[in-house]
Design goal:
The complex is a heterodimer of chains A (312) and B (264). Chain A is α/β, with parallel strands linked by helices. Chain A contains 10 helices and 14 strands. Chain A is 34% helix and 29% strand. In chain A, a hairpin with a 2-residue loop joins strand 9 (211-216) and strand 10. Chain A is globular and about 75 Å long. Chain B has 264 residues and is mainly α. Chain B has helices at residues 2-23, 25-48, 53-85, 89-93, 99-129, 137-166, 171-184, 196-202, 206-216, 227-256, 258-261. The chains are: A alpha/beta (312), B mainly alpha (264).
């Protein structure tokens, strides 16, 4: 199957001032994104996330390498590609004096829509994003959450096959961020649209993304599905066994799937390759010793650990 | 189908320009107030100086031309400045639009606004200062207006190029360009009164020839044998150059990341 995004050796630098040195922002980035995926590009500020997404979204020319999005070259076939993609970015910005409807109609026309088709599309998006009651409100009077919803609505005006989401919940309160995330997942499920999302919110990436890539200093340092990354990095899920008295007399390192363990008074902390698979066997081993457990705490490995492991 | 798609894209920029003008009280202000000030300040000055009818027409033609060009070029110049001010430039350029959609769409609104200013100022000049605006006939008037609008398009396109290169700072250029051009092309005086070097520069500006052409209907001798030929030839060359310049700066903006910087 043809990947939705295929990039090879992408490099980009920006000159500081007229004669200043070139600051390299992206170095030899390779990336492959499967169709229908929600792919997260993670990294700290200045890692090159926005530069990468901008190159793939035809807003910036790469210095080196080549990239194909939906099978089209982002440089040579940019015009054809633009019709099939769209972008929603953090801190939504549209013309201040245009109403919600005006903005959607304006962007709809930019994609060649007009007449009945445009009206129907705008109405559908107004309903979908709960913007109908705000249709006559100008952009400058919208709340931050509504602006972000409008940004997402605008990003769907051309029924894109691939959507770029540049930190889509940045600056939103918890509730609104949650709503936007739900919307992203729903869109992906219902329409099958491929999404490339940049974020430095690891929790968000964990919730949304099927695959992630880590950028640091303009280089892609790791890429894959979260469980695969976990395995590749030797990271494991956490299992804490808190005993009523002293810990069970077991050789914990020999238990199935245990990567390492620490003992602290009546508590044993284990790191397992897959907690969901290993837990029954471990509990059984404890049960056989006749030691009584007071508490069992399971904490699957999270993206933050993976991120920390990769970036440090 | 393709034609309709292109028309919708052009219409997008026309409606946006029209909306901004309609919802911005200052846009209406600049379309009515400054032309009024222009026609009355100049008209009353000619009355104070007790100038003859033809001389009054000479000066009023300059005032009407200046305001018409100023207003007509604004929509083109602002086509990208609206996006820069609202930080939405990347949303416009991620869409499958071409420069021609932006230029034609915004230019159409500039044309309508320029026409309104011309009619308003012309009407006031006729009513209050007895200027015979109909003397050049419909053909003469139309050719002169076409010349004015094409000059406005050149200025607008040059400002667009500057916006793509320098961002918001180019706003000043929108005004400066036209004032410089108007100073050199003999707006309130014949080009012959300019210093020799400035006269040479005036010959490089198409508006000089269009003013020359229009004023000869009021009894002023032609400074050049074929003003329309020179005027329109120069205009075509400058239109190509300015369009090429906008294309080049847009390409450079894609390379330098200007579109992103102007959207932050």
């Amino acid at each position: 199957m043809q990947p939705a995004i295929f990039a090879q050796g992408i490099g980009k630098g920006f000159r500081t001032g007229l004669w200043g040195p070139v600051k390299q922002v992206l170095r030899q980035v390779d990336l492959t994104v499967a169709p229908g995926a929600i792919f997260g590009v993670l990294g700290p500020n200045g890692a090159g996330k926005t530069t990468l997404i901008s190159i793939l979204a035809t807003l910036l020319l790469p210095d080196t390498g080549r990239a194909e999005v939906l099978g089209l070259d982002v440089v040579r076939q940019a015009a054809a590609l633009k019709a099939r993609i769209n972008l929603a970015a953090s801190g939504a910005h549209f013309l201040w004096c245009m109403t919600v409807t005006d903005s959607l109609r304006f962007y709809g026309r930019l994609y060649g829509l007009g007449g009945r088709a445009l009206t129907d599309k705008v109405e559908k998006l107004l309903d979908l994003f709960g913007l109908a009651e705000h249709r006559t409100v100008t952009f400058e009077r919208l709340s931050t959450g509504l602006k972000q919803r409008l940004a997402l609505a605008k990003a769907l005006i051309n029924d894109p096959e691939l959507l770029f989401l540049d930190e889509p919940t940045s600056g939103l309160d918890q509730e609104m961020a949650h709503l936007i995330r739900q919307e992203i997942v729903r869109l992906n499920r219902e329409t099958g649209v491929t999404m490339l999302l940049t974020t430095h919110n690891l929790r968000e990436a964990e919730m949304l993304c099927t695959e992630v890539a880590f950028l640091k200093g303009g280089q892609l340092i790791s890429e894959g599905r979260i469980p695969d990354l976990q395995r590749r990095l030797g990271l494991g899920d956490h299992l804490s066994l808190v005993f009523q008295d002293s810990p069970a007399p077991l050789d914990y390192d020999r238990l199935p799937g245990v990567l390492r363990h620490t003992v602290q008074e009546s508590r044993v902390d284990l790191v397992l390759d897959r907690v969901d698979e290993r837990l029954p066997a471990i509990l059984e081993a404890v049960y056989v010793t006749g030691t009584k457990l007071a508490k069992v705490v399971v904490k699957p490995v999270d993206l933050e650990e993976i991120y920390h492991e990769i970036t440090h | 189908m393709k034609l309709r798609t292109n028309l919708n894209k052009i219409w997008a920029f026309s409606t946006r320009s029209a909306l901004v003008n309609r919802r911005n009280v200052f846009a209406i202000f600049e379309m009515v107030f400054w032309p009024l000030i222009g026609v009355f300040s100049v008209g009353l000055l000619t009355r104070f100086l007790s100038l003859e009818g033809e001389t009054v027409a000479f000066i009023l033609i300059g005032a009407v031309s200046m305001n018409t060009i100023q207003i007509a070029q604004l929509d083109l110049s602002y086509a990208l400045l609206y996006s820069v001010w609202s930080k939405s430039l990347k949303h416009e350029f991620i869409a499958p639009v071409r420069l021609s959609h932006i230029l034609v769409g915004s230019g159409l609104v500039g044309l309508v606004r320029g026409l309104v200013v011309f009619v308003l100022m012309g009407g006031l000049s006729v009513y209050f200062f007895d200027m015979d605006l109909g003397r050049p006939g419909l053909a003469g008037l139309s050719l002169f207006l076409l010349g004015l609008f094409l000059n406005a398009a050149i200025i607008g396109a040059l400002v667009l190029a500057l916006v793509l290169r320098f961002g918001q700072r180019a706003e000043v250029a929108a005004w400066a360009f036209s004032y410089l051009m108007l100073l050199l092309c003999g707006l309130y005086y014949p080009v012959s009164v300019l210093p020799r070097g400035a006269q040479f520069l005036a010959q490089l500006i198409p508006l000089t020839y269009f003013l020359d052409y229009f004023r000869h209907f009021y009894g002023f001798p032609l400074a050049s044998m074929h003003p329309l030929l020179y005027g329109f030839s120069q205009t075509v060359v400058y239109l190509f150059i300015s369009y090429g310049l906008v294309c080049l700066t847009l390409k450079s903006a894609y390379r330098r990341g200007t579109l992103l910087r102007l959207s932050d």
